[in-house]
Amino acid sequence: MKPAFSFARAERVVFYLLLALNLAPLWAFHYFLTCDGPCHLYNSKILLDFWKGGDAKAVYEPWLYLNARFEPNWFGHAFMMLLQGLQVPGYLAEKFLQTLYVLGFGLGLRYLIRQINPDNLFLSSLGLFFTHHHVFQMGFYNYSCSLAALFWVVGYWLNIRGTFTPGRLLVLAIGFIILYFCHPIGLLFSFLLIGSLLVADFWLDLKNRGENASFVWKKFGQNVASVALAALPVIVLFAEYLFFKGFEIIPYGESKSALFHMLRENKALLIMDVSERWWAVSVAVVFGLLTIFAGYKKLKSKDFRWTDVLFIVFVFTVWLYFNQPRAFAGGGVTPLRLVLLPYLILLLWFASVDFSKQIKTAVLAFAVVVAAVLFGIRFPHYKMANEAALEYASCAAAIPDKATVLPISFNHHGQIASGRYVSEKIWLFVHAGDYVSEGKSLVLLGNYEAHTRNFPLIWKEGRNPFGLLQKDGAMFENQPPNADILGFPAKTGGDAIDYVVTWCKDQNFYDHPFGQDIGRQLDEGYELVFTSKNGLAKVFKRKGL
């Protein structure tokens, strides 16, 4: 007779409680603010207006055009566009995407671990630390979703390997395509993991079969052919992407010691406050201890399995992290994208190790304590971010539909009425002003996506504000910001900026030459028409409009 509350049941309860804890900040407030999230939401609304056509599309046609390339950055935009097309409010569409990611990451990791070793599901609770990582808080939704999709695709392949049918290959092919339209890193790591596991399974099978080597080779060939067939559509897509983007590699200038510091300190978990540091380090220490234990146990018992190839993948991932380029094929890599991958791959290797019940219990207890502490540290910041974002978004009341708007932030960290900064680690408010566009068709000149040419929309020739608004070598996204507001019409053939929305203009850089120059331009060409309740956000309307 099973005990009333077995370890397996306790582990399951802990996992789902921690998963709920990761979801709580998303739904506790009106906004769960990320750095780039508001801009992604805004562009998904533009895509919907392009789809509708007519007057809605006409607002943007002088400024933007649709990127005809199959950019691997469509998933989040298409998801939020679809929801808004179903009359879901924009802020909820963003929440549903964030929720899809968190659930997909947590449940996907658990699913993949189950395929490797169902006795080690406790590791999924440890992996939940990486759900709220630095890059997700930066608003890199597509990259984050690619990690979640990676777990599901590799887990699905493990589940069906050796028993391929046309229907299963179709599902795998769809998984690869979803990965591509999330982010190439997730796709490439799915190939790396599946390829490594395929070869390891073949090698072990060949070693054990002896005289039946021909059968093993035939089976291996069939498995490789099946995966290649499922991956063929996405290989064509990726080849098209590389053909048009080119193979230029821009070397990374950061020193190896700086990269090691980021990895050792587990900087992926530093997202809001400096007090997170030692808790992030404690997670790195636990990973280190588990690595030492697992390595010792493997060497002592010589119980090597085909899934131990995941340790080799981990070593390669660490090498890749230290030798990463700054950019490849037109896309930025950045250490913060890759710094969490060695931890995630190592976690998958841990799943191939037999752990005692005592170690499992200790890891679960550690996960609960640290998750609770990190939640306690971050939650007040999430609350402040929502409070400040709501104040910023309140400017929408003073801006009519179909206007051209320039949001300018004088404090990317964000602050509340008391003067306290919202985030010490991330510039959360770079694009928070984009929330003023919810429910309207506005041309926001801070649309960085259209400037990069890596997203669904691109600024038309001679219309890119990131070049037209530069002044004295600075841009409106710099700190302190600067912008040639009054000179803009002469550069666009007469199209002026209808409204300027400022954030913390009177609180930061007001005595800096750039701040004074922006103030002078606003006094000369604009009139103040709205001030938010705490005076942090203001709307200036062009005179004569």
The rough form would be described as globular
Any low-confidence stretches, pLDDT <50, length ≥5?
none
Put simply, the count of helices is 21
Please give the share of residues in helix.
55-70%
Major sheet, described briefly? 5 strands, mixed
Q: What distance lies between the first and last C-alpha atoms, to the nearest angstrom?
A: 79 Å
Radius of gyration equals 25 Å
* Mean of residue pLDDT values: 93
Q: What is the count of structural domains?
A: 2
Our estimate of the beta-strand percent is: 5-15%
Describe the overall structure.
- The protein is of the alpha+beta class and 545 residues long.
- The longest helix is centred in the last third of the chain and has 37 residues, at 357-393.
- It contains 21 helices and 10 strands.
- The N and C termini lie far apart (79 Å).
- The protein folds into 2 domains: 7-30 and 69-355, no CATH class; 401-542, no CATH class.
- The protein is 57% helix and 7% strand.
- A hairpin with a 2-residue loop joins strand 3 (325-328) and strand 4.
- The strands form 3 sheets. The protein has a 5-stranded mixed beta sheet with strand order 6-5-8-10-9. Strands 2-3-4 form a 3-stranded antiparallel beta sheet, with no helix packed on it.
- It is globular.
- Helix 5 (90-116) runs parallel beside helix 8 (141-160) and helix 9 packs parallel to helix 11 (213-245).
